[in-house]
Amino acid sequence: MHQYVRHRAGPFSAPPTQCSIARVEVEEGKNQSGIGILFSPVSFHMDQGLPTPYTYRMDKQIYQEYYGSVLGKAGFTMLVSMLHPKSTGTISLLSTDPRDPPVIDPQFLSHPDDLHTLVKGIQLAFKLANTDALKNLGAKFHDKPVPGCKKNSDKEDDDEEEDQEYWKCFIQHMASSLWHPAGTCRMGPSSDPQAVVDSSLRVHSVEGLRVVDASVMPATVSGGTAAATVMIAEKAADVIKEDWDIDVDYDLIL
Predict the structure, then answer these.
(1) Which pLDDT value is given to residue 110?
(2) CATH topology of domain 14-174
(3) Which ranges carry the Glucose-methanol-choline oxidoreductase C-terminal domain (predicted)?
(4) What values do phi and psi take at 197, rounded to 5?
(5) Rg (CA), the chain
(6) Interior CA angle at 106 toward 112 and 225, to 5°?
(7) Whether 2 is catalytic
(8) C-alpha–C-alpha distance, residues 101 and 95, integer Å
(9) Percent of the chain beyond pLDDT 90?
(10) Which residue has the higher pLDDT, 220 or 2?
(11) CB-CB contact of 82 with 57 (8 Å)
(12) At CA 227, angle to CA 87 and CA 182, rounded to 5?
């Protein structure tokens, strides 16, 4: 922090998002078991716990107990992310008053396969960390057990099942969202009871209304939703022009 405030240098001068990402199927022959391992130049403890617990909705007490010994120290992050979670949430009306906010329940980790896949992803992250390329950095994992989760401290007695149970507990305490909600107005034919819009993004049984954003995705994409949403918007623009027989001279606009 001092480096950035005084000299605009150091880890805080780098973008806080990932510098690189690996997308991997963690279980051979099993569809939708993909995870992303994101490498970020900053860690969850470098900011002294100022915005991080609030941004990621972490329990402040658990955060302080887990990261207390390394707060403010340099580090980087290997973040394991689900690419195709099987858990699905719900959005429902709070009341008949349109001014009331909707009730959003993401139901994270409600499908057991998601927990299993994330554990596999963590195990892969450890394998990457044990490569010569990362060992040469002199970095090591912050291996303090998360409060409330039992970890086998005897390295000579490495019980894989017990290890997996610890990481399941870790995930349930520390996992968060990457803010890429999608699929609440999914595209599909009118015969699909879950579909909201048709292939031209028109809301079924409603005239003059289209939905053009990540909510129309019938399934999540393998990564961030921003680029895919721009593509959906570009397609929607073409469809609307075609419906209204509009021919736009882009050179004239530019």
Answers:
(1) 96
(2) Cholesterol Oxidase; domain 2 (3.30.410)
(3) 85-233
(4) -125, 155
(5) 22
(6) 100
(7) no
(8) 9
(9) 53
(10) 220
(11) no
(12) 25
Contacts of the segment 25-32: beta carbons below 8 A, 24+ positions apart: 26/117, 26/120, 26/121, 26/123, 26/124, 27/117, 27/120, 32/84, 32/86
Token pair of 91 as six digits: 């959005």
Query: Do residues 181 and 85 make contact, with C-beta atoms less than 8 angstroms apart?
Result: no
* pLDDT higher than threshold 80 for residue 51: yes
Domain coordinates in residue numbering, the chain: 14-174, 180-245
Residues 213-248: tens digit of each pLDDT? 999 999 989 888 999 999 999 999 999 999 998 876
Residue 34 CB partners (closer than 8 Å, separation 6+): 23, 24, 25, 26, 83, 84, 222
* Candidate list 84, 111, 173, 180, residue with the active-site label: 180
**CA-to-CA distance for 251 and 187, rounded, in angstroms?**
33
